[in-house]
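User: Quick sanity check before I run a bigger batch. Here is a single chain. Can you write out its predicted 3D structure?
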Amino acid sequence: MKKFKHLFTKNNIISGLIIFVTLALLAASAYFKMIPLNRTLDENNFALKNVYAPYDFYDEEGTAALADIVADETPPVLIQRFDATFTAFEDIALFFDDTDLLRADIAKNQLDNTNFSTYLSNRISSYILMCGQNGIVINNTTSRLLLMDFSDAQYANFKSIVTENFSYIQNWDVFEGNREELLDEYEEKTRYSILDSKLNQLSNDIANAFLRINSIINIEETSATKSAARIDVLENQMITITEGSLIIAQGELADADTIRILNSMDLSGTKQFNEKVFIGIVLILMLLMVPIFVFKVLFSKEKKYTKRHVVVICVLLVLLFGIIFIIPADLSLYIPVFLLPMLIAILVDEKMAIIVGASAAVFLGFIYKSDITYIAILISGGTLSAYFAKKIIVRLRLLASGLLIGVFMVLVLLAATFAVNGNPMDRIIDMLALLVNGLISVILVLGLLPLFESVFNIITPFKLLELANPNSPLLKRLLMEAPGTYHHSLMVGNLAEEASNEIGANGLLARVGAYYHDIGKMSRPMFFKEIQGSEENPHNKMKPELSKLVITSHTKEGDEIAKKYKLPHAIRDIIIEHHGTTQVKYYYNKALESNGGDVDPDAFRYQGSRPKSKESAVVM
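Assistant: Done. Predicted structure follows.
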């Protein structure tokens, strides 16, 4: 335990808690982005809002159902029996021939037979029997109507309607599976041609009696054909919902398939919290944190990452994923993801920016279930944006770099499109989105940077250049109130910048720190030699102890002024530390002469602290 005791410092514990809270927020954001808990349908299954697909979804169940439908609708493979068709036509023709003979015989005997009623009754009975033998049910009334009461024209019309429509259905492939369907079609065709309900029923009975099955299903080949049709749907007609497509519009009534899809994609908002999914997201985040921690261990000697850096990175991550949570999935290419590596590069370190940006890119790819192209664009674009953010120190040039980042991402997308033999014209919208993304990211960086500089008191090249401007209020005041100190500070700044660059320190910070290191002299300007000019030195009339107090107080007073003008801590440190704890030897020696050698040497030292940075040491 003693070996790891140094890990449990106050700063490390606080940093760990901050990271834990950040991971929890990121996990929640990702979970609710993937599985919204708010309802999308009301109690009547009307959509409460537009619902878009957050990722590409293969509707396996829907595809299987479609395959079953296609297989069922695939016509069977038939073995035709033409003899059955001929027999059917012969049988119905024979039926009407017998009916014709009976009609003629009845018409003849109606005139010659004195006992006609008995004759007619016998003939009708024999006709009913004949019909029964053919499977046709007919009563006395209908038989009399057909055999005697119908005129020749009416009978001929009835016969023509029946035979023509029968021929139509008999010429189809008739098998067990469609015989009833063909009879229904016959009934539909004759319904308005034969108006008498009794004759209409007789017509249907005749068709049913003589319609012959003229085709036999080849079970083996039919099964193979239906199976092939089903496989074709499963392999080539898959139902896929593309990312960003509208599943249901607000106000629409969701049918059973839509409800099933919403449930399958976890978009209905009716499911309870899914612990399994949330745990998976947390594990992915923890695994993505591993390379960041390894990087910190490997490069911690080169760059000391403080609690402030941890907070900045965590806040930026929460900010980015908050934006991601708000923006719909179909606009994912417009998400300004590059503000993360750019701001980390400016506020923390470009190396850390690259590794955090890459981890965030992988996590984003997981959230949107994106292909490798999207992740490659994010990682390569993030690396380039971190480089630009660190190297460019002029805000307007940084804005121009946003366009270059967008162009670079378009080239990556083009290369990926060519690699899969795709059509670049199909990706025009995506290319425009990437160009806009680069510009939006940089604009947000420029807008957020002053806020982060102020809240976290972090000094950046952009801030340093603003402070180095001769028109800044404090430098103008220094020029007016202590011109000698102003020019002295400019000379020290130039020297400090060159020296810092030589030893690998921040030359710009050293120069700007030197500009402000002596602002405390404005409180009592005439007590410092470079300001007095030809005026009498007031120290000549003062005790050494008082002179020492006036001289050494300019560091503390400089810090008070810097605090009032809200200068960054890095500049204030240089102001406090630029004399360290050195001794004011001139007045110490004068005190020795005045007091006969009985003087405490530490009483004539500056009350500041030794330099804690290379830049502060150089200015000193």
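Strands lie at 51-52, 57-58, 78-80, 215-217, 240-241, 246-248.

User: Great, the batch can go ahead then.
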